[in-house]
C-alpha cells in the first residue's frame, strides 16, 4: 500500500508531459500566426506591385515623344506584364490608360476629353471616369479625372496619361476567410513630355487594345 500511495504522489507531482501538452495546445496558434504573417506579407507585396504598375504605365506612356502609336501602347503594356508576372496580372488584373486633354470647346462646354483610351488585362472592370470620347463636346469632364478632391486636368496644348489599375486578390492560405479577397485599385497620372501630336496612330495596323 505504501508503494501504491508513493506512486500516486509521484504521478501527481510529475511535470514530464506538461511541455508536450502545452506545445500541442500552442501549435494551432503558431500555425495561424505563421501563415497569417505570410498572407499579410503577400498582400503588402501585391499592393506594391499594383501601385508600381500604375506608376510605370503612366510614366512610360508620358515619355513617348513627338507622337504616340499603337506599337508604343504594346510596349507600355509589356512593361506592366513584366511587373505583374508573379501575380498572374494579365488574368486577374486590368489596366485602363486614358489620354486626358482639353476638349477645345468654349463657354459652358469647355472642359476635358478622353481623346483615346486603351486597356490591358482580362479582369472585367469598366473605366471609372468615362470611356474614349467622353467630354469631347460638353463639360462632363470639366473637373478632370480622379477621386473627389484629387481630380487631374490637363493644360492647354498637352495631355495627361491617366492610369487606373485594378487587380482581384485571392488569398494564398486563408481562402475560406472573408474580408481578405477583393479588388486592389491604384491610380496614377503623368504629364506628357514634349509630345507635339496627342492623337494616336497605328502605322503597323496592330490590333487595337480597346476597352
Task: Please characterize this protein's 3D structure.
With 211 residues, the protein is an alpha+beta fold. It has one domain (2-201). It has 4 helices and 6 strands, in the order H-H-E-H-H-E-E-E-E-E. It has helices spanning 2-13, 18-63, 70-83, 89-92, and strands at 66-69, 93-102, 112-120, 160-169, 182-191, 195-201. The strands form 2 sheets. Strands 3-2-4-5 form a 4-stranded antiparallel beta sheet. The protein has a two-stranded parallel sheet with strand order 1-6. Helix 2 runs antiparallel to helix 3 (70-83). The relative contact order is 0.19. The model has no long low-confidence stretch (mean pLDDT 88).
Q: How confident is the prediction overall: mean pLDDT?
A: 88
Based on secondary structure, the structural category is: alpha+beta
The low-pLDDT segments are none
Task: Determine the number of helices (DSSP H or I, runs of at least 4 residues).
Answer: 4
What would the principal axes of the Cα set say about the shape? elongated
Record the strand order, biggest sheet.
Answer: 3-2-4-5
Measured as a percent range, the helix fraction is 25-40%
Strands, total number: 6
Overall radius of gyration: 28 Å
- Quaternary state of the chains: single chain
Question: Helix and strand succession?
Answer: HHEHHEEEEE
Amino acid at each position: 500500500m505504501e508503494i501504491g500511495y508513493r506512486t500516486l504522489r509521484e504521478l501527481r507531482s510529475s511535470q514530464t508531459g506538461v511541455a508536450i501538452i502545452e506545445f500541442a495546445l500552442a501549435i494551432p496558434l503558431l500555425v495561424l500566426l505563421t501563415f497569417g504573417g505570410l498572407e499579410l506579407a503577400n498582400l503588402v507585396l501585391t499592393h506594391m506591385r499594383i501601385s508600381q504598375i500604375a506608376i510605370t504605365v503612366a510614366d512610360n506612356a508620358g515619355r513617348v515623344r513627338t507622337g504616340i502609336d499603337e506599337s508604343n501602347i504594346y510596349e507600355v503594356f509589356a512593361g506592366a506584364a513584366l511587373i505583374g508576372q508573379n501575380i498572374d496580372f494579365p488574368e486577374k488584373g486590368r489596366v485602363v490608360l486614358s489620354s486626358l486633354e482639353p476638349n477645345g470647346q468654349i463657354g459652358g462646354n469647355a472642359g476635358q476629353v478622353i481623346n483615346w483610351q486603351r486597356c490591358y488585362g482580362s479582369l472585367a472592370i469598366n473605366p471609372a471616369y468615362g470611356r474614349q470620347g467622353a467630354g469631347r463636346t460638353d463639360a462632363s469632364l470639366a473637373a478632370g479625372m480622379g477621386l473627389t478632391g484629387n481630380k487631374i486636368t490637363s493644360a492647354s496644348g498637352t495631355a495627361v496619361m491617366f492610369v487606373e489599375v485594378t487587380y482581384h486578390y485571392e488569398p494564398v492560405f486563408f481562402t475560406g476567410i472573408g474580408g481578405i479577397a477583393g479588388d486592389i485599385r491604384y491610380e496614377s497620372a503623368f504629364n506628357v513630355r514634349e509630345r507635339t501630336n496627342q492623337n494616336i496612330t497605328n502605322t503597323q495596323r496592330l490590333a487595337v487594345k480597346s476597352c
